[in-house]
Amino acid sequence: MENVIQNIENLDWPAITEEMHKQGYVVIPNLLTDLQCDLLKKGYSDSTLYRKTVVMERHRFGLGEYKYFDYPLPKLIQTIRSQLYSYLTVIANAWFRALKIDISFSLKHEDLLTDCRLKGQEKATVLILKYGQGGFNTLHKDLYGAVYFPMQVVLMLNEPGVDFMGGEFVLTQQVPRAQSKAVVLKPKKGDLVLFATNFRPEKGRTGYFRVNMKHGVSEVTAGERHALGIIFHDAEK
Q1: DSSP string across the chain
Q2: How many beta carbons lie within 10 A of that of residue 219, not counting itself?
Q3: Is residue 2 very low, low, confident or very high in pLDDT (cuts 50, 70, 90)?
């Protein structure tokens, strides 16, 4: 785990913070090694790791499958989740102050999970997603209840252009009284995408306003695509 912790500590957090304030997302390259990605993919077949499997087509979420991990999380995932959170609270608290939202996030991730439990959100939300040819994920937000953290991450576990074709990561940004803007990202194997879960602040002429954001995955045209999603709050079910 030491290399992951070191990788996170060595990131240019001032630059990441600036990008998140500016656009609500950033791609961080090479957080995971190929071996770590492959071990996470290999665990997809281990049913003891998961609490729930969702076949996306049944719920009109898209075409593919994802599995929610159960507690306790695998050590690698737990380490990434807790280490990232302590850095991201600085951004989250700045966003909520700008938008005059009376919520302040503790630097300790366990405090957020305690708030979740008090609202009946006790289920792990970290998930691994698998898409085959034709697979996609409709635009959505991962909120899960009244308590939520305003950022989340996706880690790419396959190499685009080698393991799969298509399957781009898509973000949309909705400015009030304007058309939505789409952003298409192509993270490589081991890259991390950090992005807003629900909204980000943007400064206008009379103060800050909310830019609402959703995310999804475009159609996979060939091969197989796996990704790990880390949401920092827990779910009701």
Answers
A1: -HHHHHHHHTS-HHHHHHHHHHHSEEEETTSS-HHHHHHHHHGGG-GGGEEEEEEGGGGTSEESEEEEEPSSPPHHHHHHHHHHHHHHHHHHHHHHHHTT------S-HHHHHHHHHHTT--B---EEEEE-TT-EEEEE----SS---SEEEEEE-S-BTTTEEE--EEEEEE-TTS--EEEEE-PPTT-EEEEESSEEEEEETTEEEEEEEEEEEPPEEEE-EEEEEEESS-B--
A2: 16
A3: low
* Residues 168-199 pLDDT 10s: 999 999 987 778 899 999 999 999 999 999 99
Q: Write the single-letter amino acid at 118.
A: L
Look at the alpha carbons of 134, 212, 144, 37 in this order and tell me if their dihedral is positive or negative.
positive
- Contact between 61 and 54 under an 8 Å Cβ cutoff? The reply is yes
pLDDT band at 205 (very low <50, low <70, confident <90, very high): confident
Tokens of 131: 């898409």
Measure the CA–CA gap between 112 and 89, rounded to whole angstroms.
Answer: 11
pLDDT tens for residues 28-67?
999 999 999 999 999 999 999 999 999 999 999 999 999 9
